[in-house]
Design a protein that fits this description.
The protein has one domain (about 5-455): Glycosidases (TIM Barrel, Alpha-Beta Barrel). The protein has 16 helices and 15 strands. The chain has helices spanning about 5-15, 30-35, 50, 70-85, 95-100, 110-125, 140-145, 150-170, 180-190, 200-225, 250-270, 275-280, 295, 345-355, 385-405, 445-455, and strands spanning about 25-30, 90-95, 130-135, 175-180, 230-235, 240-245, 305, 310-320, 325-330, 360-365, 370, 410-415, 430, 435, 440-445. The protein has an 8-stranded parallel beta barrel with strand order 1-2-3-4-5-7-10-12, surrounded by 6 helices. Strands 6-8-9 form a 3-stranded mixed beta sheet. Helix 9 runs antiparallel to helix 10 (about 200-225), helix 14 runs parallel beside helix 15 (about 385-405) and helix 15 (about 385-405) runs parallel beside helix 16 (about 445-455). It is globular, with a radius of gyration of 21 Å. The chain starts with a helix and ends with a helix. Bound molecules: beta-D-fucopyranose.
Length: about 450
């Protein structure tokens, strides 16, 4: 047997050995802008990503989400893939400007109709919808009046959340307010890599973050009011942060980075206050944080969703003063996005959050590997053993966290299909299924087959 065949065999043996409790949910995740297309179909309003991707040079390969995977029309193909893998849950997001084109006022019946059809079909197939209300596609109209720099946007979000849940909440039992406020606040307002593209440094990142968290806090009771009995949570991206060396300067920089990326959100949501060290460090750059805001943000939640991909190894440097950090890349394995592959990070993240914040339930809402775009081989199959291995490696760690008492209730792979990966366009892909960019036909990859086997074993 060749070395390759041996390593595939041992991977498949490790996959077969994974067992999870019968109630553990296996699913795949996507987001509206990354898959739907239908940019202006049926009365959809413009989003900040529709606008941002028009700017020359901001997307690696010049692509946009105008068509993406055309899931607006091909959603039955997406559901067929979920069925093929035997997954019991699907995490997707609603496009706010499809639901409510101007971000305020009138809802769009045709936009609602799209999600109605999708949700009904999922339920018919016994697949549970986990719905995110905001995965980064803010209505451009709201951006024009200040977007996440404007406190009012938080109120507009809470209004929209209530309206959306009022029409879909009879069937959807898991609601997420925001996906990764750290990423959209900082990449969109501090660094300018994502929409709306502001490079306003720490001042921008903190203002957008605070208003996003306020939006979350204002929305939670409105969601509960519109759909009593449903589970409500937030999805945070979680980076395990390690200092590059034991030097006190590196350790302090890692602590600062970890403070804005992890503790800022976790402390606000679970402890009702922002971390003192960050407030002190960034005094003078803070937005208007009113005394009552802390209690508004710290709503009791039914679950925390954690998106975990990698470890961040941080040393002292000059990025984003006064955070003054530098990301370093220790020797190791890296993905096509240059993210370190370090499977222990998922267990470390779960154990840390359980110990310090104790959410009632935790879902891994995203985890996956970016590779360069793959092509089907001569036999028509898309063979991506690196992605299958990544999933098995990380699920082994999740099962260790479970064994140590962390209440982790499910795992969603990012992502169902090769899609529009934000600033990277289509140059790197995370899909369990390949999408032919010409025909948009979907085809399950090897990693999807393996993931499906694990999901079936575990059920
Ligand atoms: C996360 C996003 C998701 C996807 C993955 C790779 O930050 O939530 O949309 O782009 O990263």
């Amino acid at each position: 047997m060749s070395n390759n065949a041996k390593s595939v065999q041992s991977l498949e043996e490790r996959a077969a050995a994974l067992h999870f409790p019968a109630s553990f949910r296996f699913g795949a995740a996507t987001s509206s802008y990354q898959i739907e297309g239908g940019m202006d179909a049926d009365g959809k309003g413009e989003s900040i990503w529709d606008r941002f991707t028009r700017r020359p040079g901001v997307i690696n390969d010049g692509s946009s989400g105008d068509v993406a995977c055309d899931s607006y029309h091909r959603w039955p193909d997406d559901i067929a893939l979920l069925r093929e893998m035997g997954l019991g849950s699907y995490r997707f997001s609603l496009s706010w400007p499809r639901m409510q084109p101007d971000g305020r006022g009138k809802m769009n019946a045709k936009g609602i109709g799209y999600y109605d059809r999708l949700i009904d079909a999922l339920l018919r197939d016994g697949i549970e919808p986990f719905v995110t209300l905001y995965h980064w596609d803010l209505p451009q109209e709201l951006q024009d009046s200040g977007g996440w720099y404007d406190r009012e946007t938080a109120h507009r979000f809470a209004d929209y959340a209530e309206l959306a849940v009022a029409v879909l909440g009879d069937r959807v039992k898991h609601w997420t307010t925001l996906n990764e406020p750290w990423t959209f606040a900082w990449s969109g307002h501090a660094c300018g890599e994502d929409a709306p593209g502001f490079a306003d440094g720490v001042r921008g990142g903190l203002a957008a973050s605070h208003h996003a968290l306020l939006a979350h806090g204002l929305a939670v009771p409105r969601i509960r009011g519109a759909a009593p009995g449903s589970d409500v949570g937030i999805v945070l991206d979680f980076n395990v942060v390690h200092a590059a060396t034991d030097a006190s300067t590196d350790m302090a920089a890692a602590r600062r980075f970890e403070g804005v990326q992890n503790r800022w959100y976790l402390d606000a949501v679970f402890k009702g206050s922002y971390p003192e060290d960050i407030l002190k460090l960034c005094a003078g750059l803070l937005p208007d944080i009113r005394p009552e805001d802390n209690a508004t943000i710290a709503q009791p939640l039914d679950y925390l969703g954690m998106n975990v991909y990698r470890r961040s190894v941080i040393g002292a440097g000059s990025d984003l003063p006064p955070l003054n950090f530098a990301r370093t890349n220790p020797p190791g394995r890296y993905s096509a996005l240059n993210w370190e592959i370090w499977p222990q990070c998922i267990r470390e993240a779960l154990e840390y959050v359980h110990r310090d914040y104790a959410p009632q339930q935790i879902f891994i809402t995203e985890n996956g590997l970016a590779t360069l775009a793959e092509r089907p081989g001569a036999d028509g199959r898309v063979f991506d053993p690196a992605r299958a291995e990544y999933i098995v490696d990380h699920l082994e760690q999740v099962s260790k966290a479970l064994a140590s008492g962390v209440p982790v209730k499910g795992y969603f792979a990012w992502t169902l299909i090769d899609n529009f990966e934000w600033a990277y366009g289509h140059s790197a892909q995370f899909g369990l299924a390949h999408v032919d960019r010409r025909t948009l036909d979907r085809r399950l990859k090897y990693s999807g087959e393996i993931f499906g086997q694990i999901a079936r074993n575990g059920r």
